[in-house]
């Protein structure tokens, strides 16, 4: 497995631009819908859904941290990228997140009303990419019947400027890849060597824009450069 020691550039925290409407996009996994966008494509939440470790993520989630993992295997799509790719991630979590790639932290935020885009460049395409998220839910107004939901939402774009290739995926139902989730985060849950074969699948809660979150989270609209 490779670590971020082989990565030459990490772009600092980028606050997303707030927009009033969802950008039109028919993008799904692969390059569908990306051809009309500027290159490299910018991830947004238009095809994303909130996920959690169980269906009770919509209401009454007790305070605590949960862990999520996704392994993106090396396949023929990434072989067309060349030796490396740039990865941009739009992400928000209720209430806070740490975002890892191949065992290294590269994004963190506590404020689900503000989405962020993080970019990491020159990630080798010769070995799998292991994404991990530590999502922390804080205490809410438990006297409300719909109090204290918990969830994460994210969209990913991997691109190669040299080959003009791009791949897009989000948290959400198929054809997006299946995340795994654990209510209790084990030690080193973000490690590339962690065996998550017995982790249950994360549960898709609701598409972006639907209750209980609605659309307080701005659609990420631009990258910091």
Automatic annotation (TrEMBL):
Protein name according to UniProt: Uncharacterized protein
Keywords assigned by UniProt, alphabetized: Signal
UniProt keyword Signal, yes or no: yes
Region forming the signal peptide: 1-16
């Amino acid at each position: 497995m490779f670590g971020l020691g082989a990565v030459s550039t990490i772009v600092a925290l980028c606050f997303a631009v707030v927009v009033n409407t969802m950008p039109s996009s028919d993008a799904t996994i692969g390059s569908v819908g990306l051809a009309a966008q500027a290159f490299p494509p910018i991830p947004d939440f238009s095809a994303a859904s909130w996920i959690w470790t169980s269906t009770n993520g919509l209401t009454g989630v007790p305070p605590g941290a949960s862990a999520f993992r996704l392994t993106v295997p090396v396949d023929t799509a990434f072989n067309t990228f060349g030796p490396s790719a740039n990865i941009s991630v739009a992400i928000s979590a209720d209430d806070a997140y740490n975002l890892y790639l191949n065992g290294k932290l590269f994004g963190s935020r506590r404020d689900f009303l503000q989405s962020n885009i993080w970019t990491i460049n020159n990630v080798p395409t010769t070995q799998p990419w292991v994404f991990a998220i530590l999502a922390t839910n804080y205490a809410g107004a438990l006297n409300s019947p719909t109090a204290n939901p918990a969830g994460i939402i994210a969209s990913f774009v991997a691109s190669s400027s040299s080959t003009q290739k791009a791949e897009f995926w989000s948290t959400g139902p198929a054809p997006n890849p299946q995340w795994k989730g654990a209510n209790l985060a084990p030690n080193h849950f973000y490690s590339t060597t962690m065996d998550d074969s017995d982790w249950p699948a994360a549960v898709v809660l609701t598409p972006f824009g639907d209750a209980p979150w609605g659309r307080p989270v701005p659609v990420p609209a631009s990258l910091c450069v």
